[in-house]
Structures are given as C-alpha cells and as structure tokens.
Amino acid sequence: MKLFRADAPVTAYVNGRVHTFDQDTPLAAAFAEKLGRFLAVGSNGYVRQRAGAGAKVVDLGGATVVPGFADAHVHLVDYGLMLRSTADLVGCSSVAEMRQRLRDHMAKNGNSSGWVLGHGFDQELFDPPVFPTREDLDAVANDRPVIVSRICGHAAVGNTFAMQRCKADLPEGARETGLVTEDDTGALFAGAPEPSDAEIDAAILEAGGMAASLGITSVHCLLSDLRQLDRLYALHDDKRLPIRFYAQIPYSRFPEAVERGLRTGWGDEWLRIGALKIFVDGSMGARTAAMIEDFSDDPGNRGMLLIDQAALTDQIKKAQAAGFQTATHAIGDRAVEVTVNAIDAALAHQSNTLRHRVEHASQMTRRALVKMANRTIPVSVQPQFVQTDFWTIQRVGPERYRWSYPFKTMIAAGVPCAMSSDCYVERLDPYELIYRAWERDEHSKQESLTPEETIRAYTGGGAFASHQEHDLGSISEGKLADVVVLPRPIFDIPPAEILDLRPEFVLTGGQRR
Description:
It is built from 19 helices and 23 strands. Helix 9 links the parallel strand 14 (216-222) and strand 15. The model has no long low-confidence stretch (mean pLDDT 95). Helix content is 35%, strand content 20%. It starts with 9 loop residues before the first strand and ends with a strand.
C-alpha cells in the first residue's frame, strides 16, 4: 500500500453502490481518495472515520460505481487524427453514399487540392456486397489522390491518381481495380501529408478527452510510430494527459526503441511502455485472416500468413531478450495457432512473465485455447466485432462458427481476457461493448457474457494484460483512484438500456473528468 502525506486533502464519496471487483470486499457503500489513490473502501462509517473530520464529502445518492475501464486495444492517437482529417464512411449502405460523404468532406475542407481520405466502409453493407473500385473514386476527384480504407484497416481502394503515384510493386490486378490489402495499403498511403506536432497533440487531447468522458481511464494505445510516443511524453511532461496510456510500439520500431533504452513497464502511472505490436495475418472482412480451412464463402482462399512460424518465434525471442512484451495480431484460427506456438517456443521452459499476448483471436481452436490457458497468455477481445462482422457465420460456416469470438469459453478455460474496442475500427463506446458481449447473435448465445463478467475483463483483465494489476483494475485501498459513477445499476437493467448509459462523472487519479 502507498503511504499518504498526512496533510494532503481527502475526498470521501458516500452513499453509493460501489462494485469494487475486489474479492475481499466485493460491494461497498463508500470510498475515500487521497493523492490520487484510494485511502479507504467500505461502509459509510468506516470511510468517514478513515477520511477524517476535515475531508470533503460527496454524496453519491445511490449511484453505481465501478472501476475505470481499460480499453486494451485502441488506436486512440490515429482516431483523434482521423476525426480531423478523414471522411467517416462507417455505415455507408452504398457506393453512392460513400462518394457523397467524400464530397461533403471535401466541401467542408474548402475543396483544397490535397489528399481526400475516407475510412470505415464495409462492402458487406453494399448491394451487391463488392468492394468499391478505382473508377468509383475517380467520380469523386481525378486530379488528386482519393483513398478509402475498409473498416478493419486491412484493405484500401485508391483512385487512378493515387494508383499512378504509388511506386510500389503491387500485386497483379491491383492497379486496375484500385484494391490493395495488408502491407500494400501502407504503400498506397505513402506520401500522405504528415500531421504537425500541434495536430498530434490536439488529436491526443480530443480523443483522450472523449475516452475519459465515457469512463475509459486507461488505454493500451497502438501507436503508428515513435513520433506519437514523443508527443505523449511532451503532454505528460506538461501534465496534460487526460487518461493513462500503455503505449504499444510497432515491431518495425524495435531497434530504435532498444536504442532509446525502452522496455515494457518503463514509465509511471500516466504513461508506460507496453508491448511490441506484431502482425501475423489480416482480417475476416478482407478475407485475409489466416485460416486452417478455406473460407466457406470463398473456396480455395485460406487468407494469408504474413510471417511464418520460425520467423515469428525469432521475433518474440528477440523482444523477450530486450525486456519487451509482444502483442501479436492474430485473427484467423491458423494465425492464432501459429502465434500461440511461437510464444510457447520462445518461452521454452520459462513462465510467461512478460505476458506475451494475442490481439483479437477472433477464430479459435481448442488446441490454441488449452495452450493459452496453460501458458497464461492474455488476449484482447472486441465484443463489438460480433455484431459488426455479422457475416462471419457465412465466412466460416455454422460448424466453425462455434469457435468464433468464444469469450465465455475463453474465460471458463482460464484464458486472461481483456476487453477492447479497437477504435478507430469500432466506436469508442464502452456501453455498446458491454451490450454486445451480452446480447450476441442468435447463433452464439452460449458465448454471451453478463455485464459483471464483461466489466471484470474490462477492468482487471486490462490491468493484468498491462502488468498493472497492483495499481488498477479494482476499487481497493492503495490503488489508483479511477472510477466510473453511473446513474443506474448497470447489472440490473434490461440489456438495451445499457446502450443509453453515460457516466454522471469519472475520476482518474481522483480528478473529476
């Protein structure tokens, strides 16, 4: 437990329904905060006595209190940048609607001659469900690059201008259709205007402020490069970070990270170095997830493995030797097995002390599940995908669908699960996340999680996956005072009403947000 200065101010919050997620005191009526940590948790009388006569007292009026949420996989900085520079294509029901949103975005930005970028289309919502084409984007503008990315971020389409300026060696047919996937999307976007330091700072503050207002008090943030990390440091030095950041670094920046002397866990309670992010496959939506068997709706296609077993094992071993956790993107069942086997091989006879983790694990196998439980391999999962990827049952067929997003089975087997939105891929909305984990589609109700199970993974699960369970994840004396105060009892209301929940207020380190 942390020591507190005797003269520091204390605030006591009383008359609440405090779900602590601490096994010793699961339900309390009150808590007190001092210097950003919980001084006391328990009954009204106990908390008032510990707080002392001079404490400020806040009456919660029966409100529900839970620990602050930890989004364990989110592209928060990029999301903030996209809010400012990219057309929102989420939910477009046709190519025509997509084109109109791009035109509206151009008009809003003064029809400048610069790049026109859009993100979030899902071709499965179109009629027919086919990718937009180069010619579709030429109709928006033909004198500048126009590029749109699929909601998963693993596929993109460029207009003729964008394809002509792209100097990379693209796959056969890509220049004709305008469609690229995986690593080739980076080549298509190469040369897009770089944001200024001020724009990155504004993106962090805007997106971080949105997260804080919703009850997300910490994020495992996937960074695009180390420049974004530098801006996080700058804001941290100025004490301006609105939430806590566990910074996930691209594996491509591993040498530079080592040169800087970084390693997992380095930092403090506001900004800490996290894992190195590795990609093993693509996405279900783009049919680039690495599968053991063919996609049911695309015979002959088993997706793509971006790295083989031996090379992945070597990468994890090198990261481990330098003191880095790894966070490996694996969506298809083949990708998950390759990743789990690589972690197992890299560990040899060691325990998973660095907590090498799997990101997504959308399609599982029993073999991988058992090994993840035995090796204590955390996984970050995304309940919103269950609804967004409504076509998954067609992708994999009814038999394999039993192992699609199997959250209940994972938790029951002892796999440490952390909840996440994967925003900008999904909405930054904790209440939609909790709702989707509970109200799944009719074909997978056996994998539904109660709100309590989901929030346990959304708090303690995220803390464990980031080595911060001693500071975060529960409302416990001595831990950081991060809480969400809700006007209604989230555990006792109909599922649909969860969607409308919003916090009365949020505390991060005892500071009201």
